[in-house]
Amino acid sequence: MRTIYNLNAKWAFTKQANAVPKELPDNWIWVNLPHTWNGIDGQDGGNDYYRNTCYYAKQIDKTDLPTTDCYYLEIQGANSSADVYLNGKHLAHHDGGYSTWRADITPHLTRDNLLVVAVDNSHNEKVYPQFADFTFYGGLYRDVNLVCVNKSHFSLDYYGGPGVKITPKIAGKDAEVHIETWVTNHKEGQSIRYTIYDAEDKKVTESETDKTEAMLEIKNVHLWHGRKDPYLYKAEVELIEDGKVIDNISSRFGCRTFEIHPENGFILNGEQYPLRGVCRHQDRLDIGNALLPEHHDEDMQLICETGSTTIRLAHYQHDQYFYDLCDEYGMVVWAEIPYISQHNPAANENTISQMKELVIQNYNHPSIVVWGLSNEITMKGDRDPDLLRNHQILNDLCHELDSTRLTTVAAVSPCPVDSPYLKIPDVVSYNHYFGWYGGDVSMNGPWFDDFHKKHPDIPIGCSEYGCEALNWHTSRPDQGDYTEEYQAYYHEELIKQLFSRKYLWATHVWNMFDFGADARNEGGTNGRNHKGLVTIDRKYKKDSFYAYKAYLSDEPFVHICGKRYINRVEDMTKVTVYSNQPEVELLANGVSLGKKKAKCFFYFDVPNKGRTVLTAVAGKQKDESVINKVEKFDESYRMREKTAILNWFDITAPEGYFSLNDKIEDILKTTRGTLLFMGLFGKMIPKKGEKVMGGFEMNDSMMKMLGGFTVLRLAGMVGTMGLKLTKEDLLDLNAKLNKIKKKE
C-alpha cells in the first residue's frame, strides 16, 4: 500500500556553498520546511533581496522508511528552479517554482543517504516569472515528501498529477462520472476498483475492471453549487493483485455545470451566479511564501467574511491545500500560470510545461472554472507574432487537456480592445486602475460599457482594480494620497459601477491582502504593494474590507469607518458607516444624530467637539468608535514618503490656480498650461510609441490614462523614463503653475 512519509523536519541550509557537499556540513543552519530565505529581505524595499542558488541537505536512514519497492521524492514547491542530488548523484531538474514535481530515487537509495536540493531564484531567461510586481521568494517553501509505493502503482510521473482524472457530466437528475487513471508497471491479472462516496463517506457506486478507465453513474446527483452548497463526492481508485489492494489513491470532486454568458455573466447549474471577489497572493509578513495550513485557513476565512464568491489565484499555481479549501467553501476559481508582464520567446517551453502541470494537477477541483493564459503580457505591445503564436499554443493545450473548462487572460489597461491577443481565449478580463494610476474612478464602468457595446459576443470581466492604503488619514481624500479614506471611497464607487453591470462575468479586487513587492517604493512603507483590503500580517481589516462585506455578505453587521482617524480638525466631520442592514442610526455621546436608509453605505455629518464616542446601530448590531477635536492637523496621519523628492503637502496651491497637485488633463485645457509642455513639463510626457514604466508602450489608451495623473505623481515616475527631476525643478514648475488660473 502507498505510504506518504513527510520530510519537512530538520534540513541543513546555506546561502554560502557553491557546490553539492559529499557529507552533511556542520556549519550550515538547521531549518524546518516550509522555508524561504527571503521572508525579511523580500519585503523591505530596495529590490535587493537575495537571489541566487541556495542548498538544502538532509540525512535519510533507509531503515526509518516504510519497506516497499519504489520511493519517489515529491517536492510541492521549490522557487524557481531546483536540482535533486542523492549521495552526490544528480537525479532531477525542474523549472517552475509553483507546482508539484517528483523524482524516482529508488535505484540510488542506500542504507545511509545524503539528500541535497539546490534551489535557485535568480533571474532566468528561460523560466517565468521574470519581471513582475511581486517578490520571487526563493526556497523549499511547501511540503517535501517521500511517496512509498509498490512496483505496480498509480503513476507518479505524469506532470506531478494525482494519478486520477475525474470528469462528471450532468445528465438530467443524474451524473455520469468518467474516471481515468495511469498505472506504472500494469500487469496482466491486476484489476482496478473504482468507488464513489458521498459527502458522508457512504458508498454511492462501485465498479471493478482490468481497464484504466471506467464510467460510473450517480443517481439523483447532489450538485456543487458554489458558496450556497459546496457539495463534494470522493472517488477512490484501488489497484488489486491476487485479491489484495497494492496501491490506492483518492480525490474529491464536484458535479456542476457552468456557462459564461456575454450578457448574463456567470451561470452555475443553470442559475445566474454573480462572481464578485478578490485576487490573492500567497505571502505573509516576515515568512514570505512559506505558509502553514493555518495560514491558508485564515486567508479563506477572511475572504469568506467579505461575502466573495470567487478568487483569482494570482499569478501562479497555489498550494493544493488552498485549492482544496476553495472546493470545500464553494469559491469559484480562476487559476493561472506566471506568464506575466513581458513575453520572452526563450521561455515559451516553460509556459507550456507550467500550463501542463497546472491543468493536470488541478483538473479534479470543481472550484476551478477558467485557466488563465497570461497576465498583462502586452506591456511591450500586442502584435508580436511569437506572443500570439505562443498564446494560441497554450489555449489549444488547455482545451486538449481539459474540454470542460474555458480559457481567459488578464489584459493590461492600455491593451487595445480590438487586439488580436483578445481573440485567442474563450473569455476576457481587463486590469483597470482608473482613479489610481491616472484617470478618474468614474471612467471604470463606462469603459466596460464601451467594450461590451463594441464586442457584445465577448464575455468581459474585471480581473484587477484597486488602490493603495496605509495608516494615513484625511477628511479630504484624494487620488494618490494613500489614505484609508480614499481607498474606501474608491471601492464604494467601484462597487456601485461594477456590481450593477450583470454582463461582467467576474470582478476581482486587487488585492485581498497587501503583499511583498521588494522593488516598490511608495506609500511610506517600501517593499510592499498596499492595495490589500487586509494588511500583510492579516491583523487589520481596512475600511474597504467592510465595504465588500456590506455589499456581498449575508452576515448581519455594522461598521464605523475611520477608527484609526481619531484626531480631527474640522467642526463638522463626515463619518461613513457600512452595513448590510437597511437602516442605520448613529449616536454621538448617546445622542441620536438620526437614522438613515441606504444600500450598504451610510453617510453622516457629525459635530466635532471635544471627545465624541460614536455608536452605530443597525438592527441588533452595534459598533463604536471615537473622534477627538484638535486645533491643528495631526501630522502623524499625513503620508511622508521616505525617498520622495517632494511631498504633496509641501506644495503651494493658491485658491483658483494650478499646482503640481492638479491633473494634467485639467491643466491642458488652458492655453498657458499647454504652453508649459514646451519646457520641462513637456519632457515629462512620453510620446506615442515610446517605451515607459517597466516596458509599456505608449498608445492612445495610455496617453488618456496619463492625463488623469497629477503632475506630482507623474514626476515620481519619470525616473523610469530616463528624466531626473530635482526638488528645485519641481518647485520652479509649481511656481509657474501657481500663476495659471483654473477654468471656471
Structural class: alpha+beta
When the domains are counted, the total is 5
- Shape designation: globular
Number of strands: 46
Tell me, rounded to a whole number, the average pLDDT. 93
Number of helices: 13
Proportion of residues in β-strands: 25-35%
Helix content class: 10-25%
Largest sheet: 8 strands, parallel
Unreliable residue runs: none
- Spatial gap, N to C terminus: 81 Å
Q: Which CATH C-level class of the largest domain is it?
A: Alpha Beta
Kindly report the spatial arrangement of strands forming the biggest sheet: 33-32-31-30-29-28-27-34
Radius of gyration: 28 Å
Specify the oligomeric state: single chain
* CATH architecture identity of the largest domain: Alpha-Beta Barrel
CATH homologous superfamily caption of the largest domain:
Glycosidases
Do you know the CATH topology of the largest domain?
TIM Barrel
Would you give an account of this structure?
An 8-stranded parallel beta sheet has the order 33-32-31-30-29-28-27-34. Helix 1 packs parallel to helix 2 (320-329) and helix 3 (348-362) packs parallel to helix 4. The chain has 5 domains: 3-147, Galactose-binding domain-like (Jelly Rolls); 164-253, Immunoglobulins (Immunoglobulin-like, Sandwich), CATH 2.60.40; 262-515, Glycosidases (TIM Barrel, Alpha-Beta Barrel), CATH 3.20.20; 567-635, Immunoglobulin-like (Sandwich), CATH 2.60.40.10; 644-737, no CATH class. It has 13 helices and 46 strands. The radius of gyration is 28 Å and the shape is globular. The model has no long low-confidence stretch (mean pLDDT 93). Helix 4 links the parallel strand 30 and strand 31 (406-412). The chain is of the alpha+beta class. Helix content is 17%, strand content 31%.
